[in-house]
Amino acid sequence: MEDGPRGAILQRDRKTYAIVPRTPAGLVAPEDLENIVKVVRRYNIPVIKMTSGQRMALVGMQEEDIDNIWKELGMTVGEATAPCLHYVQTCPGTETCKYGVQDSLGLGLKLEGVNQDLNLPAKLKMGVSGCPRCCGESYVRDIGLIGTAKGWTVTFGGNSGGRPRIGDVVAKDLQVDEAVGMVRRLLEYYRDNGKPGERTPRFAERVGIETIRAAMLGLAPPQT
């Protein structure tokens, strides 16, 4: 985060701030929604913006109000600029979608829960899709998971920014525990070998996806 109040992002006017409460896998409890409405009305927050990461940004608050707003929300910070896992974007998966073949919500919650405190070279986003239609935008996330009838496909190095990149497939047909373990190994490998500020697409281009696959599968690195 930029210098300033906890979990706050200075806005274009250089006077007001935005905060992004954490909403794991895009799920929001009724009591959290009620607290958000109360806070927005009490502090006259002018904008509630749904973000691409399935979160709600509260925009336009005064610096002196931010600490009280966090206390009244009772929610934790959803990171927006820090070098760590920012969010896990998911589709409904088998919870409600007729096309779902894997439980994307359950896996997304598990991945966010076990990896949210890991320090990384740069910000990182995950996408979890419960079927090959890929509504979780998995192929354009730093780490993506796509459900198939045989299990989970894991991708690495995707990005949808100014230099877009489709993530490379690292492994296929993994069961839930195997997929969680694979993601953790990818994160630790990236943490240990990435340069400060280097996002996963550039890391994958620099190191080479075959080298990354070999490291994940315990194989000898490719000859250069």
How is this structure best described in words?
The protein is of the alpha+beta class and 224 residues long. It is built from 6 helices and 9 strands, in the order E-E-H-E-E-H-E-H-E-E-E-E-H-H-H. It has helices at 30-42, 66-73, 104-115, 176-193, 200-207, 209-217, and strands spanning 8-10, 17-19, 47-50, 56-61, 85-90, 124-129, 143-148, 151-156, 168-174. The strands form 2 sheets. The protein has a 5-stranded mixed β-sheet with strand order 5-6-7-8-9. Strand 5, helix 3 and strand 6 (124-129) form a beta-alpha-beta unit. The protein is globular. The model has no long low-confidence stretch (mean pLDDT 94).
Strand content: 15-25%
Termini, distance in Å? 39 Å
What is the overall pLDDT average? 94
Ranges with pLDDT <50 over ≥5 residues?
none
Question: Structural class, from helix and strand content?
Answer: alpha+beta
> What is the radius of gyration?
18 Å
Strands ordered across the widest β-sheet: 5-6-7-8-9
What is the number of strand segments?
9
| General form | globular
What string gives the helices and strands in order? Answer: EEHEEHEHEEEEHHH
- Helical content stands at 25-40%
